[in-house]
Amino acid sequence: MPLSPSPSLDYLKEQITAVLEDPATGHGLSRTLRAATKEIEISRFHRTSSSAWPNGRIDTAPANVQIGGGAHRIEGFFNIDAVPPADLLWDVREGIPLQDGSVQCMFSEHFVEHIDYPRSAKLYAQEAHRVLASGGRLITGVPDAAFLLKHYPANPGLADEMVKRWYSKRDCVGDINTFLDLINYMFRDQGDTPNYTPHHWAYDQEKLTQMFREAGFESVEAWDFDPAIANPKRQWGSVYVLATK
Ligand SMILES: C[S@@+](CC[C@H](N)C(=O)[O-])C[C@H]1O[C@@H](n2cnc3c(N)ncnc32)[C@H](O)[C@@H]1O
């Protein structure tokens, strides 16, 4: 779908590009402008989709939905993400574009920590509750802050395993020098690359349970990991809960 016209955003992006190309621009401003560029990109995709669905609800009613799946596909699930690839490009910080009570199962993995807390995370919990049918299931997996903190200060073997499993494909490996660096990455991963959205908040089972109960879910319990839905590479060091409406 071609992007909807947005002269003011295009102009802003042009201006930002010019400032970023100027060698006099310092690191602090560059970093902030790179983050703004990412937000402009997300906003362009979102505006395009929301101009097709101005009341914020798409026509179709998928029974199974994955939020923030990135490249991870699940058979029979409709994928909503802020950026491609996805079935629908939508910034979930603006709500979930589905009809009330229409979804049987909603799944996300390593997504919730990438949206700001409390405003967007709590809105996500409320919106998930709204779109689920009675008895519908919300499955949420996040990096488990309790697992990490329980091991502080960690033995070097465990720290090495964490770095290998979580960060071996990132360019930050050389900067994880102590166990506290690992903790910092979980709480406030500030990945400064064009295709990475940072971590905004850390979660454990207690926090997820509290947030989904507050949003109105009847029950929240530990989820039995199912590799047909979740990514087996994510299981280690993550916590998954099942919230039922
Ligand atoms: C760390 S990736 C996880 C991808 C996949 N779930 C996995 O476990 O490999 C976070 C995903 O959340 C998506 N995301 C971040 N903020 C979002 C937002 N506001 N609305 C929709 N998707 C968002 C990103 O585009 C990305 O695909």
TrEMBL record:
Gene3D superfamilies referenced in this protein's UniProt entry, alphabetically:
Vaccinia Virus protein VP39
Query: GO terms for molecular function, please?
Result: S-adenosylmethionine-dependent methyltransferase activity
Output the InterPro entries linked to this UniProt entry.
Answer: Methyltransf_11, SAM-dependent_MTases_sf
Q: Name one Pfam family in it.
A: Methyltransf_11
Q: Which residues form the Methyltransferase type domain?
A: 95-139
- This one is known as Methyltransferase type 11 domain-containing protein
Origin organism is: Streptomyces albus (strain ATCC 21838 / DSM 41398 / FERM P-419 / JCM 4703 / NBRC 107858)
